[in-house]
Amino acid sequence: MIGRLNHVAIAVPDLDAACAQYRDALGASVGAPQDEPDHGVTVVFVELPNTKIEFLHPLGADSPIAAFLEKNPAGGIHHICYEVDDILTARDRMVETGARVLGSGEPKIGAHGKPVLFLHPKDFMGTLVELEQA
Length: 134
Ligand code: CO
Prior knowledge:
By secondary structure, the chain is of the alpha+beta class. Helices cover 22% and strands 35% of the residues. The protein has a single domain (5-133), classed as 2,3-Dihydroxybiphenyl 1,2-Dioxygenase, domain 1 (Roll). It has helices spanning 15-25, 64-71, 87-96, and strands at residues 5-11, 29-30, 34-36, 41-47, 52-58, 76-84, 108-109, 115-119, 129-133. A hairpin with a 4-residue loop joins β3 (34-36) and β4. The chain is globular and about 45 Å long. Cobalt (II) ion binds at residues 7, 9, 54, 79, 81, 111, 130.
């Protein structure tokens, strides 16, 4: 069912430092920061030939990333995102197989403007999984 790895998201305590490291040390193509107030994050996309890296930095008072960074002050991998053809078919299959869909279970529009769902990390070997309708 799942297709390409769309991105790996890394929570970062210092967005400028993360961008500089990926641009200057790793030689990656690093985009401009985008504020996503609906999601409580500022995101930066790093374009790689086969996938993307998404830096996540807290935005606003109750950002979901703030608690993660409290537990992981140096930053860390926050989630991985797989592409699916149809988000509702994917959601129904997850529910049928016993995986927990976070939130209301209805897709939300993610940082790329496409419908996404998140799956409980305890059902996926400790990894928060995002499904995005490509
Ligand atoms: Co994501």
